[in-house]
Write a structure and sequence with these properties.
The structure is a single chain. The protein has 176 residues and is α/β, with parallel strands linked by helices. The protein has a single domain, classed as HUPs (Rossmann fold). It is built from 5 helices and 7 strands. It has a 5-stranded parallel beta sheet with strand order 5-2-1-6-7, with helices on both faces. Strands 3-4 form a two-stranded antiparallel sheet. Helix 3 runs parallel beside helix 5. The protein is globular and about 55 Å long. The two termini are 31 Å apart.
């Protein structure tokens, strides 16, 4: 688990030459929260700086209705299909809002458990970096819901940059 340095430590700025890191494909999971949008705002300057492309992924969790009378759970495929359609529309809208049409390569909407689908996509598509937001749940909320970002980090096939909303920016957007 990555821990923060106490504020009293001053770390030197990271200076890299473009050829030191080869970054071709960045994956940004989106759930349309402000948190995930901030992850995209980090990804865009990274992509521009390294000449990389961004893939966006929105994962619709399977919906099930708990049935009575011992029938078992019933899936809701029509709702999932509608959520996929709306997800694609929202991804297109988000890309236009961020003026990222030239950087965003693919917009993927799929059904499954978010952390599994994110890591599977990263594996299957040779993703070089995942930039994901954390919602900042703590205490009981974290215990109950867990953290998609945490689960992605544990199983990711590539480096993961976790963005916490409200933190000081890492990249000077005016220089990208």
């Amino acid at each position: 688990m990555i821990r923060r340095f106490p504020k009293r430590f001053k770390l030197p700025p990271l200076k890299l030459k473009r050829r030191q890191i080869e970054l071709n494909k960045i994956l940004v999971p989106i759930d349309f929260s402000e948190h995930s949008k901030s992850a995209l705002e980090y990804a865009i300057p990274f992509a521009r700086y390294f000449g990389a492309k961004i893939d966006l992924i929105y994962v619709v969790e399977p919906l099930v209705y708990p049935a009575d009378f011992g029938i078992g759970q019933i899936g809701l495929p029509n709702v999932e299909t509608e959520l996929q359609k709306r997800g694609k529309e929202q991804l297109n809208k988000l890309v236009r809002e961020k003026k990222a049409e030239k950087i965003v390569d693919r917009k993927i909407v799929c059904i499954g458990k978010p952390f599994q689908e994110i890591n599977q996509y990263a594996t299957d598509n040779s993703v070089d970096l995942i930039i994901i937001a954390t919602h900042g749940h703590s205490g009981v909320e974290h215990i109950i819901f867990g953290s998609t970002a945490e689960k992605v980090i544990r199983k990711a096939p590539c480096p993961v940059l976790v963005v916490k909303t409200g933190e000081r920016g890492l990249i000077n957007k005016s220089k990208c």
